[in-house]
Amino acid sequence: MEGIRYYNRYTGREEREQVPGEKYMQWIYGTASGKAALHVLIKRGVFSRLLGWLKNRPSSARSIPSFVEEYGINMEDSLKGMGEFRHFNDFFYRRLKPGARPLAGGEDTAVFPADARHMGWERADRIKNVFVKGQRFDLPSLLGSDTLAERYAAGAVVLSRLCPTDYHRFHFPVSGVPGPWTKLGGPLASVSPYCLRGRLAWLWTNKRNLTLIRSELWGEVAMLEVGATGVGLIEETYVPGVFSARGAEKGYFAFGGSTVMCFFEPGKVSLASDLLEKTEEGLELFARQGDMMGTAAT
C-alpha cells in the first residue's frame, strides 16, 4: 500500500506524510485479518474508548516529548510549555498563542477551519473522484438530510483532513451566526486515505456534528466535523445563536485523526486556485488554519 503524499502550499513541493502507526494502518485496511479487527474493535468504538482513556491518564504525558521530537511539532506556538500538560490529550488539543494563525484577507475571504490537508470541489454533485477514481459523496447520508443535500449539491465543498500530528482545534471559516449542532452517525473508523481509498462511506457513517452558519455575505454555510479512530470526543466550544467571527474557535477533537468539511450554497464562493488545481491532480493541499480557502463570489 503506497504512502500518503500531499502538496505543501508553503514549500511549493510534494511531500510524504508522517503517519503515526502507519504499519498498523496498512494492516487494518489492507488485509483480511485487519478488516476483521476493524469490525470487532474499531467500528464498535471499543478501541477508541480504550485509547481515549489511556490518553487522559496523567502517565500519558511522558510520551509528549518523544512525539514532538519524532514528528517535528512546533511548540513555540503553544500557550502551554512542554512540562505543563496534564496528559497527552491536553497536549493534543492544546491552544495556540494569539496571532499564531493570522487570518488571510478580509471578511470576503473564507479561511481554512483547521491545520490540515485539504481538497476542494466547485460543485459537490460533480466530483469525479475522492482519493481514488469513481468515489463520490453521498450528500443525503453525509448531511443527514435530503433537503440539505439539495441545497448544497450545486455548491462548493472543502474537505480538511487532520492527521494526529496536527493542531486539533477547529475554527469558523466565515463570520456569521451558528445554530445548534446536530449529532449524526455512529462508528469510528479511520479517515486516513488508507481507509478512504477503499471506502469513502466512512465519512457518512462515522460519528459527526453538523452546524449551519447564517451569514449575510455567505448565505448559510454548513460545517461538518467527522470523528475517526481514536477520536472519542468532538467537543463544541462555541455558543449557538451568538455571532462568531471568522477564525474564532468552534471546538476541538480529542486524540486521533479527524476531518472538517465546509459546504457552500451555489454561487457564494470561489475556491483558491491552488486548492482546485491540486484536487484535480488527486493531491491534498496542506495549509494552516486561517489561511485563504476562497473568496466571496462576485
TrEMBL record:
Pfam families: PS_Dcarbxylase (PF02666)
Top-level taxon in the UniProt lineage: Bacteria
Keywords: Decarboxylase, Lyase, Pyruvate, Zymogen
Recorded GO MF terms: phosphatidylserine decarboxylase activity
GO biological process assignments: phospholipid biosynthetic process
UniProt protein name: Phosphatidylserine decarboxylase-related
Organism of this sequence: Akkermansia muciniphila (strain ATCC BAA-835 / DSM 22959 / JCM 33894 / BCRC 81048 / CCUG 64013 / CIP 107961 / Muc)
